[in-house]
Amino acid sequence: MGRYDRTDLGAYSLGLLEAAEAARVERHLAACPDCREEVRGFEAVRGLLDHLVQAKSTEDRPAPRQPPAVLP
């Protein structure tokens, strides 16, 4: 991956990389089964988190609590 940084795999999985960086990661993934497996793991976790966020957003939410009074 050129200047290799494993955090790029997580950022790639989240779609946070610029196009050139994403292309660099994809070239590396084409040749590295270990990193492909790591990205699959990130994507599985992301899918679970997306599901939880969607489920939470459809629940009825209680009214927001008032912040506690600040003592003088």
UniProtKB/TrEMBL annotation:
Span of domain Putative zinc-finger: 9-36
Entry superkingdom: Bacteria
Alphabetized UniProt keyword annotations: Transcription, Transcription regulation
Gene3D superfamilies, per the entry: Anti-sigma factor, zinc-finger domain (1.10.10.1320)
InterPro entries registered for this protein in UniProt: Anti_sigma_zinc_sf, Znf_put
Name of this protein: Zf-HC2 domain-containing protein
